Amino acid sequence: MLTVVGNLKGGTGKSTVAFNLAVWLAYDKAGVMAFDLDPQCTLVDVCEVREEDGFEPIFKVSTDLTELETMALDKKCKHPIIVDMSASNMPAMEKAISIADRILIPVQPSQADIWSTQRFLKIVNNCLDKKKKTEVLGFINRADTHVGVRETDEAEQALQMLQGVKAMDIRLYQRTAYRRSFSEGLGVFELDPMGKASKEMKKLAAMLD
Predict the structure, then answer these.
(1) Which structural domain range is residue 106 located in?
(2) How many domains does the structure of the chain reveal?
(3) Position 197 in a domain
(4) What predicted TM-score, i.e. pTM, was given to this entire model?
(5) Which residues contact 79 (CB under 8 A, 6 or more apart)?
(6) Which end of the chain is more exposed for a tag (fewer CB within 10 A), N or C?
(7) Which residues of 32-70 are buried (b: 16+ CB within 10 A; e: fewer)?
(8) What is the CATH number of the domain that holds 92?
(9) In a domain, 209, yes or no
(10) Which tens digit of pLDDT belongs to each residue from 19-60?
């Protein structure tokens, strides 16, 4: 299963989501292979922190698009694959989308992010291999924790109305735990197994299993 985590807009938490999912999958006996196709290489950086600090399990992160294509075509490859990408490397983004089994789209709760997601979905539709049944999923990320803020509900309703994407019944909230765990090279479920962020991420991982 090749899962691409992407969106056009920066700051949606793509790398944080990709990293946490990769760490979660790394605990399984099949392991995981991760690819960082974003020139900023944030996923590479956090995994280097993880390795330097001796946290296990360790998993490989590649920036080689050719290697990704080869693994995607290899029927013997049993590893789930997680890809972190950004619009700053559009050719790599388009290629990754074309070979993906699943596109996972984190969407921040703002109108600007909904507009950006609409544009991203047009790119996805143009790049998808129509012979494959690629799953396109979206969810609200960095949702506001204050119950009085309406933007999160409004963004989720807008996401549900977009064509070409299935809105997932889950939210990841704006929590310090995500920033702290990322800076320490740990998944949120490793840093604080009983915390709210941990429960959210575990739910997301389970829905993608």
Answers:
(1) 2-204
(2) 1
(3) yes
(4) 0.95
(5) 30, 31, 32, 33, 71
(6) C
(7) bbbbbbbeebbbbbbbeebeeeebeeebebbbebeebee
(8) 3.40.50.300
(9) no
(10) 999 999 999 878 899 999 999 999 999 999 999 999 999 999
